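Researcher: Sequence recovery benchmark, item below. Answer with residues only.
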């Protein structure tokens, strides 16, 4: 009798991949990224920063940012990812569209195209309106989104396989241009058990994002090419947005 084939176990997003995430992202310069976000914030806010990070992941960027602020809260929908954050920090497992906080923050940040994981316009609107509730009158929300050229340019790079510790992994990346959805499918194997995770990101145009923001309770203060303060152009890979309340001084 032929041996029954083993089907991979379907995992929730960012569960088993938490074991290899930092290895996959090992080339990211989180210190430089954190310094850039700090520079963006300082264009709008003076004095002490009280920071909430959405979609913190394993906390690498937030840890790098902590040299600029001792009042920093890490959040993520995946508790498995947050387990990697050092215990010295405050970390909360929560949904960015349903924030559990009563305290106010003058700085809310989200990086590494985490907003792209909200594939419905209504979820982005919920997220922004939740942030408005906990943002001080002079506070800002800054985030980046990955643009279509980024998906097209790095497809080859994101189709990869390898080994880290006892984990074997295969990443398959595909961009559905018609529906503007970028798929990353991970097959991860350990001890003869194979797990599968499928991550989806919607690739919004700048015009779509601006329209969504216009319907929210926050105002668009600025948008520029990420990692710079320059205007967006046709070859931009990522956009950096800054939102605030009506009475933010700019």
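Model:
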């Amino acid at each position: 009798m032929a041996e029954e084939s083993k089907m991979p176990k379907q995992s929730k997003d960012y569960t088993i991949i938490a074991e290899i995430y930092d290895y996959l992202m090992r080339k990211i310069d989180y210190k430089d990224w954190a310094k850039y976000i700090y520079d963006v914030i300082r264009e709008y806010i003076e004095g002490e920063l009280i920071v909430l990070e959405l979609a913190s992941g394993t906390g690498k960027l937030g840890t790098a940012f902590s040299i600029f602020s001792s009042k920093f809260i890490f959040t993520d929908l995946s508790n498995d990812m947050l387990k990697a954050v050092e215990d010295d920090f405050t970390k909360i497992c929560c949904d960015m569209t349903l924030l559990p906080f009563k305290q106010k923050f003058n700085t809310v940040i989200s990086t590494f195209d985490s907003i792209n994981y909200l594939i419905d316009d209504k979820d982005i609107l919920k997220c922004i309106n939740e942030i408005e509730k906990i943002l001080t009158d002079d506070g800002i929300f800054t985030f980046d989104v990955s643009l279509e050229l980024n998906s097209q340019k790095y497809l080859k790079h994101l189709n990869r396989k390898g080994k880290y510790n006892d984990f074997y992994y295969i990443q398959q990346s595909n961009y559905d241009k018609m529906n503007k959805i970028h798929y990353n499918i991970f097959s991860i194997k350990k001890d003869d058990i194979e797990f599968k995770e499928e991550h989806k990101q919607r690739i919004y145009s700048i015009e779509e994002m601006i329209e969504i923001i216009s319907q929210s309770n926050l105002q668009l203060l600025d948008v520029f090419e990420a990692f710079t303060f320059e205007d967006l152009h046709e070859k931009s890979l990522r956009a950096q947005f800054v939102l605030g309340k009506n009475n933010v001084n700019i």
